[in-house]
Description:
The protein is an alpha/beta fold. The protein has helices at 10-19, 26-36, 51-64, 85-98, 116-124, 133-141, 158-163, 167-176, 192-201, 232-243, 255-267, 281-292, 326-333, 354-364; strands spanning 41-44, 78-81, 106-109, 128-131, 152-156, 182-187, 206-209, 220-226, 248-251, 272-275, 298-301, 316-319, 343-349, 410-413, 416-419. The relative contact order is 0.11. Mean pLDDT is 84; it is low at 390-435.
Amino acid sequence: xxxxxxxxxxxxxxxxxxxxxxxxxxxxxxxxxxxxxxxxxxxxxxxxxxxxxxxxxxxxxxxxxxxxxxxxxxxxxxxxxxxxxxxxxxxxxxxxxxxxxxxxxxxxxxxxxxxxxxxxxxxxxxxxxxxxxxxxxxxxxxxxxxxxxxxxxxxxxxxxxxxxxxxxxxxxxxxxxxxxxxxxxxxxxxxxxxxxxxxxxxxxxxxxxxxxxxxxxxxxxxxxxxxxxxxxxxxxxxxxxxxxxxxxxxxxxxxxxxxxxxxxxxxxxxxxxxxxxxxxxxxxxxxxxxxxxxxxxxxxxxxxxxxxxxxxxxxxxxxxxxxxxxxxxxxxxxxxxxxxxxxxxxxxxxxxxxxxxxxxxxxxxxxxxxxxxxxxxxxxxxxxxxxxxxxxxxxxxxxxxxxxxxxxxxxxxxxxxxxxxxxxxxxxxxxxxxx
Length: 435
């Protein structure tokens, strides 16, 4: 099958051909006809298999079939919601690429940057808007975005939006949309929570799954290297240097860990940068651009980047630390092996992470090969320590345990508490929240 047989206009086909795509992927073959018919859709496929084009191409086709009076402000007719800034920017780049020969207008809005330039573009009017939920609601509250004319809603990476706690924002946005519209839900994985959300938002949707749920791409070579935690950085530097790797995406669990590892690699003579939620949007954009252009060899990222980095021929992904949530492993390694290319995903696993590794293998139904690196055999006397960050943080199992109450008749004096006079109320007891 070719793109010519899918019912797309010549201007869209011209843009697709210039992009270098001749044959649609399985998700595109199945999704595009459904979307062109105006049906609701719940679609799942392995990451890197062309989901973005799978909804962008037919949505653009539907938009150009409806005439709009260009003399008036264009209403937002298509809304694409994404969980992260990087993914929003990536989706909008795809929209601009495929719409280059069309008269449609589009823009993207997300947090971390000034809202005023975004407001100016929205006030002038756009046909298609790509947005993160929080920033979109900011624009709604400031009357720069009106969602009453939306005809098509796309939820991209819906499972990630639920993981990040966007369900309340999604419901707020849904309440601002017309009751009659086409809704498309795309995701790399389907959980029971996603199916519940689909039942709420979609009307008799067509279900498409082109690969078994929570599986990893066959063209990704996965491997595990067991190594002591304190020697992970040493091993990573040696692998990058000895194999002459020039484009490596490395994942850590924490922002602090990403910063520290990027600095250590730089000190080892390996150009690197970190990207995570505490970085300014400008810094994140520059780091990603430098990585894509190979100005830096290593990009160290937290899971915020797992859905927002689209490098067609990214050769190497390294899990410096395994994720706390097994599904995130699928999204991390899905950054390589995209669009039919070969990729390599390597995990450096210490004794603390053995349970996380078992959870991942249980999820993907595949035992990842273990390869020992000479000189890095783990010390068998080291005992596992609990991972106290994220969802694996131990809880107090003593249900009778109570938090200590702050004594009432006390006031803050030089950072400590001293007794106040009988009946006196404590002064200045308000404490600032810590970041």
